[in-house]
């Protein structure tokens, strides 16, 4: 099976400091792949580079096409979508307008099926429908994450990249969000999930990578990673006492 | 001063103020979306007025040639970029947009100008000749440095302003022009004479403001511009490219500028360099709104218009001084009432 996303020798530098070094990863259509690792390992940088928000070197092959040269907007219109850690919502606009803008590239292509996706997003997150006339800036943390996910789904992604979707959320909401993530796979969306909450991430993912100081140090099917002593010691042992 | 004069000055002030309000809105829009302080806004006023004046004399306006020249420059830049990125398939579209269309517009103007078409057609022709200059100026001058600091963008604006004033002298000459009013009608309302032209100006400004409001509230591109103004990163992530947003906001600014020029042309004599002062008064309005709030900017611009009208009655030699001095108390007031936000690092 050919990979939807194949990254080879990806390096990202801020000035002279290299934040990601020669990363390689692979994601097959319809899978959930997670990248776990400690704070400052370069996870967010990796996703930003995949989205084209940061200049990078190496090769990113997506759906059989080399996309390294493409601007973020061109990647979005090919079905790549990033939900960043900071959500980056349009705070002074309504929930509904945030969702409308999620489908911006589809409006440009005169896609007639956008209305159905509104219903789908509101079905997944009924809270957003209740608050659709409210400004995004007035939402709670959990609602913001729902809106960020909803906005991303409105772009009808083939590959959804999620940066710390559980960050700062109450455990109950984290469970909801992960339930939605697992459900998305059923609809054929491939997901690249970056998480500090390694336990939750490995539970939902098919395959995992461990990123430390900019380099991928371990990789394998999630079940193997979850039983790998090094991973247990560094990530699961600590995490289980906190969120989980 | 009696009531009649006071009312006349209000009419005069609101008429000019309506035009300043349009320009203030354009300045706020451009700044919010691109962080550019758009000093050349006034040049679009002059270009609009002088192009219409040329057409009314049955002459081919210089703008047609200017559009072709600027189009060629943009085509060169775009072609170089397309070749560097190996995107040869873009070449036909570039040639069409930046060479074929300007040539077509030049030919159209050449053919139409001597026939002195109806005023509506002259206005339309003026708009299609002037408005495309907006996005082209963005492409040439601002887009390559779109991520630079506000100060650098301001310096670019000063350069573009001088370049456009100079080009205005070359293409329109040094003489001023004034076009006949759209309407000679006069109404008596009590002691006040209302001129048809001032109603035209206020009505057209109001209509344009409502149209802008509808555009921002109800169209996907309007929402995309607001989104870019609110959160640049978020906008990129949903596929709104900053270059697209920049070109669109400059198109709107050029449209507003050209329309203001068309409206103001029958009221004042416009020279190639008159736009700057008109634009600057819009800028005072925009500053009242903190370059941020559309309604306060528009209200500020109306205030500028009224102040100017009364100042020219009482102390006509100092009217510009009085208007521009207004900016000092406004800046003091704003610096006390708003907290300073550090410019975001990009």
Topology at a glance:
The complex is a heterodimer of chains A (244) and B (346).
Chain A: E1 3-14, E2 17-28, E3 32-36, H1 43-51, E4 57-62, E5 65-66, H2 72-77, E6 80-83, H3 95-102, H4 104-108, H5 114-124, H6 126-130, H7 141-154, E7 159-163, H8 171-186, E8 190-195, H9 198-204, E9 207-212, E10 215-221, H10 222-227, H11 229-241
Parallel strand pairs in A: 3-8, 3-9, 6-7, 7-8
Antiparallel strand pairs in A: 1-2, 1-4, 4-5, 9-10
Helix pairs in contact in A: 3-7
Chain B: H1 3-34, H2 41-56, H3 62-84, H4 91-112, H5 119-130, H6 133-142, H7 150-172, E1 186-189, E2 192-195, H8 196-218, H9 220-230, H10 232-237, H11 242-264, H12 275-288, H13 294-314, H14 319-325, H15 327-337
Antiparallel strand pairs in B: 1-2
Describe the structure in your own words.
The complex is a heterodimer of chains A (about 240) and B (about 350). Chain A is an alpha/beta fold. Chain A has two domains: about 1-80 and about 160-245, Rossmann fold (3-Layer(aba) Sandwich), CATH 3.40.50; about 90-155, no CATH class. In chain A, about 40% of the residues lie in helices and about 25% in strands. Chain A contains eleven helices and ten strands. Chain A has helices spanning about 45-50, 70-75, 95-100, 105-110, 115-125, 125-130, 140-155, 170-185, 200-205, 220-225, 230-240; strands spanning about 5-15, 15-30, 30-35, 55-60, 65, 80-85, 160-165, 190-195, 205-210, 215-220. Chain A has a six-stranded mixed β-sheet, with helices on both faces. In chain A, helix 3 (about 95-100) packs parallel to helix 7 (about 140-155). The radius of gyration of chain A is 17 Å and the shape is globular. The two termini of chain A are about 35 Å apart. Chain B is mostly helical. In chain B, strands 1-2 form a two-stranded antiparallel ribbon. In chain B, strand 1 (about 185-190) and strand 2 (about 190-195) form a beta hairpin. In chain B, about 40% of the residues are buried. The model of chain B has no long low-confidence stretch (mean pLDDT about 90). The chains are: A alpha/beta (about 240), B mainly alpha (about 350).
